[in-house]
């Protein structure tokens, strides 16, 4: 999760971004300079972001790259342009910002491509890792990467990936992300497992056959000796717990 300082960096970067938007709009469409208003909008966004996030995690170095409007556009003069974040978009990675004329004889609405990079420490693979292989501390080294280059969150702490298994083929040079690793299986499909059915004040222990591989915290189905199929949560000791 981005830190307090990284969020402030985002805010500063966005203030610069709004300034670029204001200047570009003014030059192309004779718009009055809305820098003060855009700065206020950015500050409101930053305040909201700070309220939603805790001050924890690594400090990120933000880079903002603003694209250009379609040169074929012929926008009418506008006294005030309002930037906004379109629904479903976010200020992360390759995205877009909306620009709409809110004070003009001929209102218009356009979109401007934007790329936001967030550079910070991460773990980069030193070699290829096969699917299902268990990762060790020697499989990755720390380096600065663009956290926003992929939608999946970066795995910043070694505790989150050492001892985990590769969820797919991993290549040297890739930054480790949450979608790339998963907890190792405690048992395989077809294995005999211990099943604990728990209710108020009692617990019944029996055995069954796992219908799929199981990892800690995962829900799995088990076929009991009487043929009944039940679902339960895999505990750390491999027991499948059913709450009645």
Topology readout:
Layout: H1 4-29, H2 35-52, E1 61-66, E2 80-84, E3 93-103, E4 109-125, E5 140-146, E6 165-166, E7 181-182, E8 192-199, E9 202-210, E10 219-224, E11 229-234, E12 240-243
Parallel strand pairs: 8-12
Antiparallel strand pairs: 1-4, 2-3, 3-4, 4-5, 6-7, 8-9, 9-10, 10-11, 11-12
Task: Describe the protein in words.
By secondary structure, this protein is an alpha+beta fold. It folds into three domains: about 5-120, no CATH class; about 120-180, Type Iii Antifreeze Protein Isoform Hplc 12; about 190-244, SH3 type barrels, CATH 2.30.30.760. It has helices at about 5-30, 35-50; strands spanning about 60-65, 80-85, 95-105, 110-125, 140-145, 165, 180, 190-200, 200-210, 220-225, 230-235, 240-244. The strands form three sheets. Strands 1, 2, 3, 4 and 5 form a five-stranded antiparallel β-sheet that branches. It has a five-stranded mixed β-barrel with strand order 8-9-10-11-12. A two-stranded antiparallel sheet has the order 6-7. A hairpin with an 8-residue loop joins strand 2 and strand 3 (about 95-105). The protein is elongated and about 75 Å long. It starts with a helix and ends with a strand.
């Amino acid at each position: 999760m981005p830190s307090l300082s990284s969020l402030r960096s985002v805010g500063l970067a966005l203030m610069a971004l709004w300034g670029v938007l204001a200047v570009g709009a003014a030059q192309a469409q004779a718009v009055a300079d809305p820098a003060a208003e855009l700065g206020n909008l950015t500050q409101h966004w930053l305040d909201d972001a700070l309220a939603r996030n805790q001050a924890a995690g690594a400090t990120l170095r933000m880079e903002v790259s603003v694209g250009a409007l379609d040169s074929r556009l012929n926008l009418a003069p506008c006294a005030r342009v309002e930037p906004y974040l379109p629904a479903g978009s976010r200020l992360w990675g390759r995205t877009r910002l909306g620009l709409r004329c809110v004070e003009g004889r001929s209102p218009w609405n356009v979109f401007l491509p934007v790329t936001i990079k967030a550079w910070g420490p991460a773990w980069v693979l030193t070699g290829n890792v096969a699917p299902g292989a268990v990762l060790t501390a020697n499989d990755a080294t720390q380096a600065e990467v663009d956290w926003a280059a992929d939608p999946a969150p970066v795995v910043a702490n070694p505790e989150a990936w050492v001892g985990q298994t590769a969820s797919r083929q991993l290549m040297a040079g890739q930054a480790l992300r949450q979608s790339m690793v998963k907890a190792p299986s405690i048992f395989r499909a077809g294995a005999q497992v211990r099943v604990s059915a728990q209710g108020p004040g009692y617990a019944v222990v029996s055995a069954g056959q796992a219908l799929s591989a199981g990892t800690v915290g995962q829900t799995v189905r088990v076929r009991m000796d009487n043929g009944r199929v039940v679902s339960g949560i895999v505990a750390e000791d491999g027991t499948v717990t059913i709450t009645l």
